[in-house]
Fold this sequence. Notes:
Shape: globular
Distance between the termini: 42 Å
Structural class: alpha/beta
Number of strands: 11
Radius of gyration: 27 Å
Mean pLDDT: 89
Largest sheet: 6 strands, mixed
Low-confidence stretches: 195-203
Strand content: 5-15%
Helix content: 40-55%
Strand order of the largest sheet: 5-4-3-2-1-11
Amino acid sequence: MKLARFLMSHEGFISVLCYTVTAVFSFLSFAPLNLPIFVWFAPFGLFLIEKRNRGEWKKLIYHGFGFAILFYLVSFHWVYHMTTVFGGFDWYLAVPIFIGSAILLNFKFPVYLLLFSFLAKKVGKFFPLIASFSILFAEFFTPQVFPWYFGNVVAENQILAQNAEYTSAYGLSGFLFFVSYYLFYLKNPKKVLHFLFLIPSLRTKHEKISKQLLVGLISLLIVLGLFFGNGFYLFHKWENVQPIAEREVLIVQPNAPLEFRDGRNPAEEIRNLMTRIDRMVETELKEKPVDLVVLPESGVPFFTTHDSEVTRSIRIYWHQFESLMAIISLRHGANLFFNELDADIPGNPESARIIRNNIRMYNSSVLMNPNGDRKNSYQKVFLLIFGEYMPFEWMYALSGQTGQFAPGTKMDLIPYYERRKTPSNVTKDLHWEDTFGLSPDSVREHYRPNQIEEKKIGSFLPLICYEVIISEFVRQFQGDPDFIVNVTNDKWYGNSVESYQHHTLGRLRAIEFRKWIVRSTNSGTSVFTDHLGRNIDNEFTPIETTATIRKKVSVIPGKMTFYRLYGNLLSYLFMGIVGLVFFVYAKRNS
């Protein structure tokens, strides 16, 4: 009742308007609309609420939750779809889950308002650095399952995005709030006119204001020049770098089913899927070979090609799955990278008695070389809470769709091999239908005339699903990859903006590493992104359809960028300096 009265009041109207400005302007700036001009005004809602409620801590917390809920409603509305489709919850449970997650996972809004208000009150005058300090603190130290930073939206500007090589998205967030707070402060035309006319006469009664504005304008121009100038330099520097090689890569988007609660026949659907994958690959590669074929996360769900006592005991190994993967790689003489389930038992699983409770399941991706041999695999390390595991055992009963995966322990690059460059030497090519009568070993024997010398020609960095958006995690991989491969399954989110947002959040890894990204999705949007963060030809595969897309991926000469070497050092250094300046200022004026 109290909330209803507040919303119908003048103060409530202004507050909701502020929430809406921040939420809608952020959404307009973000993928897939990509209108970055709006991002400079998105923080205005936060600034106005803080100014109207400065020092009223309880109100600021409530307003922070208001920003969180409306922001979630506008930009992350697909979370509701995921809750009902993936989680299987009815709407009366999905709504409170949505609101609860909006509050718990967007604590950066109330934290930002509280910290900014505290610092602004202590300083007592216009000091835009505290706006940058506050947003950096809020983005660094508040929990987020699906990390989203204002800097990711700033990076829609291709020139400014290049600064991510040094600062990642965090530094761009600080830059945004520094500039935006100036715009907010000068939103009154009278102030601008006063400033313009009072510069020549510093002896007037407005001398102090004029000095502050003059110093402020100079500092603003320096910061703008630094970010735009550095971005322009880096853009042209890396645009002119000559690749040391090119790899032809094919992405296959099979639009595989996720589950069968609608009554479809699972066996029939899986057979149709395998036939579809087989034909899509053959159509693309019959006349035009590639170095690497990439299937997405859950491209073939529920099964593995890893033949072991453990995988056979829990019935996830399927010999026809392995046979088809071998057929594709041998038939076309190409590397094949695909996603699967995997399992083991800690210790010595081959000799120990297999007890189901001891088995660990993995979300895994593996490479099959041009000779049809199963090579290196990568088990997903950074698991998605509520999707791939629950924080407490009793919570698994809430959603039957949630996996019980264990995190992988290795973060190694995946080597790939030289493709077959000669025509096929077999008289009859095999297809999915042949796997009913041929084992994987029989497939390899059939294609023995196509065997070539195994020659490693490079390696790539494997990332599964939303691992690509965690910058601090990705930089932990060692070695110099030729490119990055991100396989993901966004089908749970339906025909929503999530898939575009997911890619945009991960796109900065291309700039931080100065490597191309191959993004392979189950149902859209698959895309190639170059080392400048540009989506090649702006060509995305459509959502909820089958599709293929192929490009030549440039291998950029190996070089450890500043961000790979030092991470968020510059952002932490900035926060430390501003914190020290504030401490000295506060102590001097106490």
